[in-house]
Specification:
The protein is α+β, with helices and mostly antiparallel strands. The chain is built from one helix and nine strands, in the order H-E-E-E-E-E-E-E-E-E. It is elongated and about 95 Å long.
Length: 189
């Protein structure tokens, strides 16, 4: 004699599946903007750390070698051929003091394009450290300035690195004048 067993199906019903998908969709809708902000902030932090690291290294090399060390925008990573800091930058021993790297001048550091807009009005495409560690602009004047780090196309507050005339960089929420530095809006920024 055969025993009768009921045929039970296993799994989820269509209603349960659709409910789970709706809850997951709502969760993703809430999480994605937060992840985008996290990614943007992380990209800015990486770029800031790269530039500040180059500044510290260049200043240290200038003092240690008792020689001028220049930092300039560089698209190719060998010469001061960058149109802006967004192209990347190099640091090198600037033995002739012209803020242009020749093949005889030793490369100290090379950083590729940081993937964001990086601007400085005071140090348009370069600056240097004297043997005493003080920073100067392209004309050789001991000078302070700031670098603004922005996400391309975003209209938000920039991260700011202030380079003091003493040669020491400082991370700040505002520019040297105390005003909030805004990122320019637009696709190219």
């Amino acid at each position: 004699m055969r025993s009768r067993t009921t045929n039970r199906q296993r799994g989820f019903t269509l209603g349960e599946t659709l409910t789970a998908l709706a809850v997951a969709g709502i969760g993703l809708t809430l999480a994605v903007p937060g992840l985008q902000a996290f990614s943007r902030d992380n990209g800015q932090a990486v770029a800031v750390n790269q530039l500040v690291g180059t500044m510290h290294m260049a200043r240290s090399e200038a003092v240690m070698r008792n020689a001028r060390v220049a930092v300039c925008a560089s698209a190719g990573g060998e010469r001061c051929d960058g149109q802006s800091w967004s192209d990347g930058w190099i640091a090198f021993l600037d033995s002739d003091g012209n803020l242009e790297r020749s093949s005889a001048e030793a490369l100290v550091d090379r950083v590729p394009a940081p993937g964001m807009v990086l601007v400085s009005a005071q140090f348009a495409t370069g600056f240097s450290y004297a043997a005493d560690g003080h920073a100067s602009n392209a004309t050789g004047d001991t000078h302070a300035g700031e670098f603004a780090f922005c996400e391309a196309g975003a209209d938000n507050a920039a991260r700011v690195v202030i380079l003091r005339a003493s040669g020491l960089p400082t991370l700040a929420a505002r520019g040297r004048d105390g005003a909030v530095v805004r990122c320019p809006a637009g696709p190219e920024a």
